[in-house]
Amino acid sequence: MADELVISRTFSASRARMWQTWTDPARFSRWFGPKGATTILINADIRAGGQLHCAMDLPGGLRIWAKLAYREVEPLTRLVWEHSFSNADGDIADSPFGGPWPKRLLNSVIFEDAGEGTRLHLTSTPLDADADEIAAFRGALDSMLGGWSGNLDVLEDFLSGS
CATH number, domain at 103? Predict the structure, then answer.
């Protein structure tokens, strides 16, 4: 069974525009997060060694916090970050949904030209996870695929101006 989530999708937007949606905090907050969520940026320093901290208000009233610690930022080409649940102070925290879950996921997004659009390739894999956390990640792959797909739907709507 796979220990990695993989999603590829083509968007009708240039690589420069796609890059902006991922690296400009004002744009990022308008599409990032589960479908139906409102994302509130606490801070955003999108560079290698920088971090982004945000709250996501989900339908139904649940607020979840996330921390992204950027490892690589290659303009127009690639973003690599450690993705974690966090608390309001930005400290890495347990999953708000209970049960075992990796404290950190290594995520990457690669941007490639695809005709007049951009092909996005996203991967996510657990970092330093124990056996129970890896099993939980494996068990959640379908849910994560649905979550990221919904998030990318929101991105597509944002890019089209909807």
Answer: 3.30.530.20
Total number of domains in the chain: 1
Q: How deeply is 65 buried, as exposed, middle or buried, from its count of CB atoms within 10 A (0-12, 13-18, 19+)?
A: buried
For 13-35, the pLDDT digits (tens) are: 999 999 999 999 999 999 999 88
Q: Is the pLDDT of residue 123 over 70?
A: yes
Rounded to 5°, the CA angle 14-57-60 comes to: 125
The helix (run of H) or strand (run of E) holding residue 73 is strand 63-74
Q: Single out the residue of 144, 129, 125 nearest to residue 2, CA to CA.
A: 125
Q: Which two tokens mark 146?
A: 């649905």
Domain of residue 48: give its range. Answer: 5-160
